[in-house]
Amino acid sequence: MANILVIDDDEEMRELLKMMLMDEHHDVTTAENGLKAMRFYHNQKFDLIITDIIMPDKDGFEVIFDIFESGIDTPIIAMSGGRRSITSEFGLNSATVMGVQATLHKPFTELQLNEAIKWILG
Q1: Which of 25, 30, 99, 104 has the fewest Cβ atoms nearer than 10 Å?
Q2: What is the pLDDT of residues 86-116, one digit of tens each?
Q3: Higher-pLDDT residue of 48, 91
Q4: Which pLDDT belongs to residue 39?
Q5: End-to-end CA distance of the chain, in Å?
Q6: What is the maximum span of the chain, computed from C-alpha positions, in angstroms?
Q7: 3-121 fold
């Protein structure tokens, strides 16, 4: 199937996503922040990136920007549950304006995740 990079600072969310994606036979790499994710990104080819928006040590907006600036056309799904001073709607709308292919509002179902992936990857 697809080689997917999952970026989320919440360990439980990363593991849950990894499990759901592996159930669909995807290869999954996880990163707890954008800094680590970009190291993976520059050393490996991914078919899809799923990133949280609000994270320490390089947030999702910075990751999205860096990926688009790299010139490599990797599709991105942005996800957010909204916390701190930013609402999930604002974060996801901003990610859409930046050019991500899909957004997911946490909590989302496995079906919603799989539908987004199928829509993006065909």
Answers
A1: 25
A2: 555 666 777 777 889 999 989 999 999 999 9
A3: 48
A4: 96
A5: 11
A6: 37
A7: Rossmann fold (3.40.50)
Identity of the residue numbered 20: M
Looking at the DSSP bridge assignments, the partners of residue 3 are: 27
Determine the angle formed by the axes of helices 88-98 and 60-69, rounding to 10 degrees: 0
Q: Which of 36, 17, 48 has its CA nearest to residue 112?
A: 17
How much is the pTM? 0.91
Strands (E), 53-122: 76-80, 102-105
Instruction: At 31, list the tokens.
Output: 């990163």
For the chain, list the strands marked E by DSSP.
3-7, 27-31, 48-52, 76-80, 102-105
CB 29 within 8 A of CB 55: no
At residue 109, what is the residue type? T
pLDDT for the residue numbered 82 = 57
Q: Are 7 and 31 in contact (CB under 8 A)?
A: yes
Candidates 112, 89, 87, 116; CA nearest to 101 is 116
